[in-house]
Each structure stands twice: as structure tokens, then as C-alpha cells.
Specification:
Elements (H helix, E strand, L loop, with lengths): L4 H19 L4 E7 L3 H17 L2 E7 L5 H13 L5 E4 L9 H5 L13 H8 L8 H12 L8 E5 L6 H10 L3 E5 L6 H5 L4 E4 L17 E4 L3 E3 L2 E3 L4 H4 L5 E2 L6 H20 L2
Parallel strand pairs: 1-2, 1-3, 4-5, 4-6, 6-7, 7-10
Antiparallel strand pairs: 8-9
Length: 276
Amino acid sequence: MILDGKKMAETITGITKEEIEKNNYKITLALILVGENPASEIYVRNKNIACQKVGIEVKNYRLSEDTEESELLKIIDECNKDASINGILVQMPLPRHMDEEKVINTIDPNKDVDGLTVVNQGKLMGGLPTIPSATPKGVITLLKRNNIEIEGKHVVIVGRSILVGKPLALLFLQNNATVTICHSRTKNLKEMTKQADIMVAAIGKPKFFTADMIKEGAVVVDVGINRVDGHICGDVDFDEVSKIASFITPVPKGVGPMTIASLLENIVDCYKMQNK
């Protein structure tokens, strides 16, 4: 069965829009883009469109590739102090001369809609209420809303990034799954993935995961977004793996829309934290 992230995201976005309108929330997101990375341009445009649909104002900051790090930090500091700005998002990746970790941790944790500051990551590690990264949150939401059982299941995540792999592992643990994280140094990867009741692919290699690497009846979540010959595909060979998986996310229209929907929820949650 295909897990339709696009349809589910539309439902969640509708709920978010209704909440904003019902409570007359006045929410503003500061969205900062440095440089002219084509993929980042697309992501920023999509985030602007999504915010507009639900009634979230966006204050866009577009900085040139050669902007000094100190200038970016100054803008973030100003946004931190501006009570009218409820969320701050710095689009990654940043130019090489900038320290991403330093930039991220300059953001006020209460305005950290991406959930990437060490404060919010630490809260996630401790099982405390926090703002989780949008993609991991979207994955868990998609599974739960499709009544896919997580408790007691063996989850294998291939990918250990700060954006997806690590926070997603913690969210699965909070839902009482048994979690294995694999990565580029993992030996006998196929043996590991074939044990998974739920397999998450997040390595950025097109169609890397083939049917012989997946257990019959497994749930397969494809986080990868790759462009090959002008077409978008995931990290999973969808045509082959969909024949043996019980559930599988497509690319596109799978995890991607859920990430945007979860980001909108995070922005609203930041607003509510600041306006208790």
C-alpha cells in the first residue's frame, strides 16, 4: 500500500490553517537564504507558499553568497530580539565559509522551527517537550495516522544526519520501537536492512535499496530526494520494493509534503510557547 504523504499533509495543513484562523494568531516566520543554491531556492519558495496558505507571514532575508558570517549572525540576533517574529529558519546548506553549527545555535531555541539547536536536540534526547525536526516528525505522523504500529517493531534507519537519522531514532524510541542506525561504515548493510519491520532510507543515493535488501511485508519509508535525468526519485527502487513492502512512501508525494506540514505545525508551536 502506498503511503500518500501529499494527501495526509493537506489534511494536517488544513487543521493548522483552521487553528490559526479560529484563534486569530498573528504569526511571522523569518526565512533566511544565503547564496543561490538551486535546490534551496525551491525549498524556500515552497515554504513561502505553504505559509501563505495557512496565514503565516514570512519575512524573507536573501543574502549573497559572499555575505560575512558576522552579518548573518547579526540578522539572527535581531530576529531573536524582535517580539513580532515567532520563528527563525536558516535554509541549509550555508556557504563553506560559514560555521553551520554556530549559526544554528545563535537562534533562540523558542524560535527554532527546525529543532536543530543543541537545546532542542538535548530536550529530545531527554524525552522532554520540544520542537522536533520537521522531517522526523512528519515520518512518525504519517505512520501513526495510517495506523501503522510502531511499538515493539524493529526499525532500521540508514542515515545518521542531525536533520533526519538521529532525531528520528529518538522519536521511534519514544514510541517504544527497537532502533538500529546504519551508515556508510556499517558492515553487512543488507543483513541489517532485511531485519527491519520498518526501514527508513535517508542516504541520498538514488534507488540504492533494492528488493533483495527488504524483508517481505516491511514498511518502507523513503526520505531520499534525488534528481536523475531530469526526474526525481528516492533512495529506494520503488518499482521493485513496492511489490514486497506492506507500506511504502513514494518520491515525490511521500515524506516531502509531510515535512512542510510538520514545519507549519512547528511554527505554530513556537508562537504558542512565546504567547502562553
